[in-house]
Structure formats: structure tokens, C-alpha cells
Amino acid sequence: MFTIIRGIILLTVSVIGVIVGFTLIDSNSVYKEVFGDNTSIKLAFLLGSIFYLITSMLLREINKIIDDFLENLSLKRILLGTFGFIVGAILANVILLVPLIIFFNSDIFKHQILLKKLEPLLKIVIPITINMFVGYIGYRIMTKYDDDIISVLSGREYKQLVSILDTSAIIDGRIFDICKTGILSGEIIIPKFVLNELQFIADSSDSLKRQKGRRGLDILHKLKTEITGLVVRFTNDEIPDEAHVDNKLLILCNNFGAKLITNDYNLNKIAKLKGIQVINVNELANAMKPTMVSGEKLLVKIIKKGKDVEQGIGYLDDGTMIVVEDGGNHVGKEMKTTVKSVLQTSAGRIIFTRCKMN
Fold first, then answer.
1. What is the pLDDT of residues 48-105, one digit of tens each?
2. H or E element: which one contains 311?
3. What is the CATH superfamily name and number for domain 162-287?
4. Do 319 and 213 form a contact (C-beta atoms < 8 A)?
5. How far is the C-alpha of 134 from the C-alpha of 139, rounded, in Å?
6. Which residues of the chain are under the pLDDT cut of 70?
7. 324 within 8 A of 298, measured Cβ to Cβ
8. Is residue 309 within 8 Å of 321, Cβ to Cβ?
9. How many CB atoms lie within 10 A of CB 289?
């Protein structure tokens, strides 16, 4: 659709350039001396080409700006913002119509020669500027207080699906895979202080921390560009009276009525105590793993010895640790095992098995 509109605009502008070229030739003979024979055609073609190139570059930049702008907006914000802009423009016309008529018919324009010459232009520019300004104010009000406005208009409390990411969940990386499944919807907010903390880690002198920080920044970029149906928004909201990042997150969750996505065990507990809904990435990942019951058969490759000499350690594809009884002497081999028990911890699951000897 944009390509069609772009083509129409470019064609129109090129034609205007050609018309301007012919007009200049007819009004000034100097151009004929400069360009020689076929002056009209040469100048018209030149101006048409210049108009085309300049407009093409402008349209490309405008399209990019619009795409970047709309990327951070939900459909709700676009609709409310448009409505606010229209209402603002209507109010501007209603309130300022009479004052503008009085102003343009005042003695100022009768006695000032320059203003008299500029009067047609001012009659266009001033109303448009006022309409744009007041319309923008309406847009800002509607998008800033969108939830409150919907609550008032609908007569009920409006709750948007909003989640706030903390640094631990971003660095972990699994949040991207979780979002790809479509489990999370609505809007994900990354506060400025979380982004600053992530950048600080990415600039760390410690190579491991630096690697984690850069991976976190890559995850944010992928969340914003590769996940459809999910709005990722960076907010500048600050809590000036609070220095600790965890406390800022809790306050921000309360302000937005948002869920907290974290991997931090202590933050998870404190948030739940304060009545904030928490999505713990570890718990969610563990919940998605298949359940194991006593007596189930597993084929396990034993990677290393365990704490006890007779124990062997292996892992499932999802990273679940398997402790194999009597497997210490079979390192590097795939063994048939039988599940004895499963231990669930905050860090994940551990499956205890016994070698099934042939």
C-alpha cells in the first residue's frame, strides 16, 4: 500500500517539477542563454528529476520514522491518540475561530504593508499551527492516561496485560523462547534503570559479566524486533526517592498494576509478600518439562561421576540433572536406567535413577 502511495506522490512531484521548469523558462530568458536549444525540455527534465530524488529520500525517512514510532504503540494507543488529536483540533477551531476572525480583520493588517502581503499565507499557517499544537496536546493526554480514560468511559476497572522485566530474567535469555510460544501477551515494560543496569554489566571489566550483559542486550533487541503480538516498551519512569533497583521494580509494578518477570529468588518472595503477581522463569521452565514417575525407563549418557564414587551424572536435553546410582563406573556410556524419585528444587529438578543391568 505504501509503495502505491509513494509512487503516486513521486509522480505528482515530478510533474510539478516539470511544470515549474516550463514556467521558469517562460518568465525568464536568462535560462535560454544558459541551457541553449530545447531549454524548456532540459530544465523541466532537470527540475523533475531533482524533485523526484529529494521527495524519494524524504519519503524513505518519513516511512522509517513512522515505523519506529508505531512499533512502540499498541492498537489501543493509536486509536485513542487519533481520537484525542481530532478532539483537540475541533476544540481549537471552536475556541479560536472568533478571536482569529477579529485578529485578521483588525487594523494591524490595514496599516502594515508587509503583513498585508503576508495575510493570505498567515491565514493558512496560523490556524494549521494552532490545530496541530492543540491536537497534539489531545493526543498526549489520551495516550498518557489511556487506562484511566477507558475505566471512566466503560464504568469498570480496566486491566491491561502488563509485565515488567528485571535484569536477571533478561540475562537468563529463556524469556525470548517463552515469548515466542505466545504464552505472554499484552505489553512488556523495560524500565530505564533496568536498561542502565544491563548496560553497566555489559561494560564490566569482568569478561563473564560482560558476556552476560551483551547477551541480555541482544535478547531485548530480539524481543522488540522478532516477536509479533507483543508490545515491548522502554519507559523512563524513575523512582527518585529509592536507590535500590529491586525496590524500584516493586514500586513500578504497583504503579502499573503489572506482573513482575524475574529469576531472582529473593525478589520473587518479596514481591509475592507485597501482593504482586510474579512470573518466575525457572518455575515456568520447570513446569513445561515432562513429568517423571517412579519406575519409568530412561536412556541416559553418563557424563561424569557424582559426589559419591558409585554415582554417575547425566542430563536430559532440557538440562535436567539425572543422578544414576551405580553409574560411576560407566562414564561416557549410555545406560538404561529406571527412575527412583524426583526432587523438585527452586533451581530445577533432579531425577534419581538406578542402572538397569542386563
1. 777 778 877 887 777 777 666 665 556 677 787 888 888 888 888 787 777 776 766 6
2. none
3. 5'-nuclease (3.40.50.1010)
4. no
5. 9
6. 1-3, 5-6, 13, 17-44, 66-75, 101, 103-123, 146-160, 318, 345-348, 357-358
7. no
8. no
9. 13
Work out the end-to-end distance of the chain between its first and last CA atoms, rounded to an integer number of angstroms.
Answer: 68
Rounded CA separation 181/335 (Å) = 33
How many Å apart are CA 173 and CA 218, to the nearest integer? 9
Put simply, whether the predicted model's pTM sits higher than 0.70 gets the answer no
Q: Are 313 and 302 in contact (CB under 8 A)?
A: yes
- Residue 307 grid cell: 559426589
Report residue 4 as a C-alpha cell. 502505491
Eight-class DSSP state of 328: G
Q: Break the chain into its structural domains and give their ranges.
A: 1-71, 75-158, 162-287, 297-355
Q: Which CATH number fits domain 297-355: 2.40.50.110, 2.40.128.20, 3.40.50.880, 3.40.50.12780?
A: 2.40.50.110
Looking at beta carbons, which pairs linking 264-268 to residues 24 or more positions away fall under 8 Å? Answer: 264/166, 264/168, 265/346, 267/166, 267/168
Q: What pLDDT is recorded for position 158?
A: 47
